[in-house]
Description:
Blueprint: E1 3-7, H1 9-17, H2 22-32, E2 35-39, H3 41-51, H4 60-73, E3 75-76, H5 92-102, E4 108-110, E5 123-124, H6 126-134
Parallel strand pairs: 1-2, 1-4, 2-3, 4-5
Amino acid sequence: MTYYAVIDTNVIVSSMLKRSSIPGKVLDYVLQGTVIPLLNHEILSEYADVLTRNEFGFSASDVDVLISFLQEKGIFFDRTKSNELFLDPDDAVFYEVALTARRLTDAYLVTGNTKHFPIKSFVVTPREMVEIIENGQPC
């Protein structure tokens, strides 16, 4: 079964910091093609900006490989503006891309910060996403 998900930056960072973590497992599913990443250029730009921060110490080549992979394998969507309020306005793009994608397919927003987003069944933690995949559940 194939799943579609917007992956919040915090999940990407966590997966790269600790590959054996639950977020790392989500990234593994992306790399295997089980999860198709849903993106737009703002999301890719945020990934690149955050992953190249010195505080994380990721190599430029690792970041480039990941960004290129996501760009090649991902599906790009425009944002559907929502009337939701976000503590961090930068989070809105992740939610709004998921909303747009949900018009066409079951899509998730995978985040380590669910409290930053509206309470919706499609906004899930990395652990919940792994459970959904391992149990073969649709959205």
